[in-house]
Fold:
Amino acid sequence: MAPWFLKFYDTGFVERDGVNLPACSWFGRIPEPEAGKYLEAMERAEKSGEFVGLFKGACRESRRMPDKGTFLDSLVSGMKLYKSTFLKIYGHDISSPGFADEALAKLKGLGCSKAGEYYEGIVSGWKEEHERMMKEAAAWYRKNSTREFARGQKGGEGIREREIQSLTKNELTELCKKLLQSGVIERPEQFATAVNQGR
Structure:
């Protein structure tokens, strides 16, 4: 048997002698003595009971997502307060109005007398930044949607004009008749105006 680096595979990734790749490692077959060692080790482990109860371990408690209760419990005396702490209070207050008052009261009770001031300053700064970002996004959207609308309008008129210009005299006459019958135009002279307006 040739070593793996001398084997040749066809476009279907099949060895030239017809063995499918999934049936054979890139490195060739496992030598019989080595395969025998693995088999013996597995049999010894099974007989010694190593596999008994392998998948019957005690279930661990699933990870709890942080909620306002655990957040309040995490506020302790002597802890460092960060901007993110006050933003978390604000986030919980959005979904549960009144939570900020409760959390700030707890912080004041723990010795942070300026918790309310910190909270107001950080939240007002966040709101200003958020408002600025929303205005920028709205301006960008307005500019791009107006541009796209104008492009669509120009493109639409160009297509309509090209379509009308490609019609034969008989097709134009039929179109004019349909517009007259549907009441879009009252006189044939209005045909060009109706077509340009996209009716």
